Amino acid sequence: MPGISRQMAAVQSVLFKAACPDCRARIELAAGALRLAIGASRRTTFYSFTCPECGSAVRKPAGERIVELLTGGGVRTLRLHSSV
């Protein structure tokens, strides 16, 4: 399983660039610092993180490409289900 270990190490080393809308800091975050929520619509699909500079909770919309990049980079994903 050496191939799996290398792949996991590569995913863990991925950094994502983000910006805080409150303090305007430009930051790099590891996959573990981000959360992705996938809902039934664009309005309910977003990623979130806590700004390491000011401590603000940040929530931003995530389109298809962002979802693809974040899931491929190992960001934890929550699938939201609508009530019927």
Structural notes for this entry:
With 84 residues, the protein is α+β, with helices and mostly antiparallel strands. Helix content is 24%, strand content 33%. The chain has 2 helices and 6 strands. The protein has helices spanning 2-12, 64-72, and strands at residues 15-19, 26-30, 35-38, 46-50, 57-61, 76-79. The strands form 2 sheets. A 4-stranded mixed beta sheet has the order 5-4-3-6, with helices on one face. The relative contact order is 0.23. The model has no long low-confidence stretch (mean pLDDT 87).
Compute the number of helices.
2
Calculate Rg over CA atoms: 14 Å
| Coarse shape | globular
Mean residue pLDDT: 87
Order of helices and strands: HEEEEEHE
Could you name the ranges where pLDDT drops below 50 across 5 or more consecutive residues?
none
Which strand-content bin applies to the residues?
25-35%
Read across the widest sheet, the strand sequence of neighbours is 5-4-3-6
| Biggest sheet features | 4 strands, mixed
Record field, number of beta strands: 6
> Helical proportion?
10-25%
- By secondary-structure content and strand pairing, the structural class works out as alpha+beta
Q: Give the termini separation.
A: 43 Å
What is the gist of this entry?
The chain is an alpha+beta fold and 84 residues long.
Secondary-structure blueprint of this entry?
Blueprint (H helix, E strand, L loop, with lengths): L1 H11 L2 E5 L6 E5 L4 E4 L7 E5 L6 E5 L2 H9 L3 E4 L5
Parallel strand pairs: 3-6
Antiparallel strand pairs: 1-2, 3-4, 4-5
